[in-house]
Amino acid sequence: MDSEANPDLELARRAAAGDEAAWRAIYVATRERLFSLLAYQLGNREEAMDVLQDTYVSAIRGIGSYRGEGSLEAWMAGIAIHQAQSWKRRFLKKRKQTDPLPEALDTAAPPGGDPEARRRLAAALTQLSDRQRHAVLLHEWMGYSFAEIGSILGTSEATARVHAFRGRDALRALLGDSPAPDAAASLMEQRS
Question: pTM higher than 0.85, yes or no?
């Protein structure tokens, strides 16, 4: 793909060549949404900050592999999800060796709205499979296409669509008649 036709590819090429301004532009354009994605994935804002740093370190090392086939933010979201999965494996392994998991982790709910509804939504998200949670958050909150989600998750577009639909159905069943569906609906509003 021609870098002149794809500003993300041009930015990535400049960053790969060591252009600090390009890295700063990538960071500014992606940090807030990637942090929110990680906070939802991990349920802990402090850990999300650490994993976000790991995400950028991995991106710096691998920026030369970005081919411009999707948005640079979607490529970064894929790295962030993989970093979150690695963190969860390390966290669970460490917890297994030491203490039982606490009943409630510090959930990172979206700002605004009813705090109880946000808490229920965050708790319901933890009940989904990893792939369903990823697909729902990437589509409903981050606004990615199913093709981009499939690329991030390493699945086909159709499989990404199935994970998102099943995840939404599971959320509806888990949340029932609570005000939490309103919090879920606010995911779409927060994308902008």
Answer: no
**In the chain, where are the structural domains located?**
1-108, 114-192
Question: Residue 190 half-sphere exposure, CB side, CA atoms within 13 Å?
Answer: 21
Distance in angstroms (rounded) separating the CA atoms of residues 38 and 31: 10
**Side chain identity, residue 129:** S
CATH number of 1-108: 1.10.1740.10
Arch. (CATH architecture) of 114-192: Orthogonal Bundle (1.10)
Let me know: does 136 contact 164? Beta carbons within 8 Å: yes
The type of residue at 28 is: V
Confidence of residue 123 (pLDDT cuts 50, 70, 90): confident
Dihedral-angle region of residue 174 (phi above 0 means left; psi in -120 to 50 means alpha; beta otherwise): alpha
Taking the C-alpha atoms of residue 34 and residue 31, their distance in angstroms, rounded to an integer, is: 5
42 pLDDT tier (thresholds 50, 70, 90): confident
